[in-house]
C-alpha cells in the first residue's frame, strides 16, 4: 500500500517550501491529508444511510511579518503543489529566502496500533454488525418503540513539513458504534444512549460487542 508519506518525499516537500518562500516569506508550512470515511445508519431495522468517501489534498501557508497567505489543492502532483505554493507566496513581499533547514522528525512518535483494519471489513458485514445491536436492543422488552444504530470509521494520513525543518507524519484510525433507543410505558417515554469508540479498528468489538452496546 502506497502511503501519503511515500507520495510526498523530502525532495518534493523541500521544493514546495522553497517555492512558497520565493516571494520573501519568513515561514512556510505544508499540511497534506488523505482521509477515508464510511458511515452507516440503521433506523427501525432499515438501512437509512450507507456512505463512503475519500478526501485528499494539501494546504500551504506562508507567513511574512504580520501577513499570511494560504492556498490549497485537491491534487498531490508536483505541478499542483508547486502552483499552490506560488499562490501562497504571492502574499509575501521581500527578498527571496530559499534556505530550508534540514528535516528532522519528532523524537517521540505516537503510533495508533490497529489489530483489525476496519477497511478490510465489507459493507455487508457492517450492516450485520449494526443489525446485531438493533436486535439486542429490541429484545429488552416490548416497550422499545424506536432503535437507531450508527456506525462510523475513519482512516486519516497526515504529513506536515515546514521551512524550519520539522517533518512529521501520522496515520490515524477511528472506529465507533452508537445506539439510541426510545422506550415507552403508558404515557412515560424515555430515551437511552450508548456508544463505543476507539483510536483503533474492529478490535473495539472484542471488548464492546455490538449486542452489548445495543
Describe what this molecule looks like in 3D.
It is a single chain. This protein has 214 residues and is of the alpha+beta class. The chain has six helices and six strands; from the N terminus they run ααβββααβββαα. It has helices spanning 4-7, 10-20, 78-89, 123-138, 204-207, 210-213, and strands spanning 27-43, 46-64, 67-73, 144-162, 167-185, 188-198. The chain has a six-stranded antiparallel sheet with strand order 3-2-1-4-5-6. Strand 4 and strand 5 (167-185) form a beta hairpin. It is elongated and about 75 Å long. The protein starts with a helix and ends with a helix.
Tell me roughly what share of residues is in helical segments.
10-25%
The Rg value, from CA coordinates, equals 23 Å
End-to-end gap: 35 Å
**Strand portion, in percent?**
35-45%
Q: What is the count of β-strands? A: 6
Q: Number of helical segments?
A: 6
Widest β-sheet, arrangement of strands: 3-2-1-4-5-6
Order of helices and strands: HHEEEHHEEEHH
- The class by helix and strand makeup works out as alpha+beta
Q: Could you report the average pLDDT, rounded to the nearest whole number?
A: 91
Biggest beta sheet summary: 6 strands, antiparallel
Shape: elongated
> Low-confidence parts lasting 5 or more residues at pLDDT below 50?
none
Amino acid at each position: 500500500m502506497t502511503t501519503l508519506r511515500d507520495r510526498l518525499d523530502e525532495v518534493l516537500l523541500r521544493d514546495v517550501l522553497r517555492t512558497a518562500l520565493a516571494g520573501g516569506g519568513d515561514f512556510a508550512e505544508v499540511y497534506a491529508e488523505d482521509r477515508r470515511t464510511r458511515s452507516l445508519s440503521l433506523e427501525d431495522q432499515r438501512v437509512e444511510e450507507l456512505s463512503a468517501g475519500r478526501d485528499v489534498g494539501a494546504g500551504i501557508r506562508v507567513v511574512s511579518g504580520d501577513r499570511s497567505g494560504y492556498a490549497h489543492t485537491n491534487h498531490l502532483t508536483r505541478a499542483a503543489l508547486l502552483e499552490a505554493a506560488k499562490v501562497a507566496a504571492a502574499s509575501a513581499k521581500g527578498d527571496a529566502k530559499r534556505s530550508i533547514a534540514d528535516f528532522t522528525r519528532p523524537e517521540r512518535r505516537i503510533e495508533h496500533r490497529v489489530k483489525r483494519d476496519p477497511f478490510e471489513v465489507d459493507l455487508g458485514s457492517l450492516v450485520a454488525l449494526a443489525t446485531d445491536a438493533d436486535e439486542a436492543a429490541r429484545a429488552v422488552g416490548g416497550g422499545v418503540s424506536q432503535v437507531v444504530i450508527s456506525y462510523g470509521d475513519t482512516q486519516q494520513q497526515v504529513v506536515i513539513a515546514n521551512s524550519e525543518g520539522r517533518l512529521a507524519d501520522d496515520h490515524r484510525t477511528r472506529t465507533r458504534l452508537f445506539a439510541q433507543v426510545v422506550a415507552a410505558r403508558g404515557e412515560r417515554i424515555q430515551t437511552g444512549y450508548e456508544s463505543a469508540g476507539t483510536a483503533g479498528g474492529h478490535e473495539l468489538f472484542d471488548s464492546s460487542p455490538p449486542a452489548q452496546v445495543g
